[in-house]
Design goal:
five-stranded mixed β-sheet; Nucleotidyltransferase, domain 5; alpha/beta; single chain; 5 strands
């Protein structure tokens, strides 16, 4: 299936985490927030910032995770949807299977694939994922860096709260926009 070329979905997830490795007995890393926004390629515009809370079923949100993300178990219990419903939102509201999606690094892509497989949920995206962290490194002498450092390197200030899905998706979209302004959008064409 050919993908639409007019927009790119920028995604950042937050997942249950602990200050120990491996996770506590009986718990697994699970997506608890899907942050997203859309980058309009033709109009050079970032829009549709959204946070979707996801209720974990194989873990609980630790105090460490709350300190890192500011997301509480109570928030996801009260405002969250189950993972299958969150994936349906991506497909129905954003046509996620028909557009290119990107994230900062490969973690988000890997987590979606693993959780979909583990839970028997249909993968909500198409085959095309762009690892923006790798793309940024390709244009900066192979120097891979975190999103905060890439923002600083690009003379972009951070907006919002770090380790919140919607804010990190928005900042990742700003880095995508910076790359397009600086190097044109030729690097995206390999995904279309």
């Amino acid at each position: 299936m050919a993908i639409q070329r007019d927009r790119i979905m920028v995604v950042d997830i937050e997942a249950t985490c602990w200050n120990v490795t491996p996770p506590p007995d009986g718990q697994l890393n699970e997506i608890i927030e899907i942050g997203l926004c859309m980058y309009d390629v033709e109009n050079d515009n970032i829009s549709d910032k959204r946070s979707i809370f996801v209720k974990p079923i194989a873990s609980v949100i630790s105090e460490f995770c709350t300190q890192l993300t500011n997301i509480t178990q109570q928030q996801v219990d009260e405002q969250g949807v189950d993972f299958a419903e969150a994936c349906d939102i991506l497909v129905k509201d954003y046509s996620a299977r028909k557009i290119l999606w990107t994230s900062w690094g490969g973690y988000d892509h890997k987590m979606f694939r693993q959780q979909c497989r583990r839970m028997g949920v249909s993968y909500p995206f198409g085959d095309k994922h762009m690892n923006l962290k790798k793309m940024f490194a390709d244009y900066h002498k192979g120097n891979r860096m975190g999103m905060m450092r890439a923002l600083k390197h690009s003379n972009l200030g951070h907006v919002g709260m770090h380790h919140r899905g919607d804010d990190d998706a928005w900042n990742t979209a700003r880095i995508l926009q910076y790359l397009i302004h600086t190097y044109d959008n030729d690097f995206i064409k390999r995904y279309w």
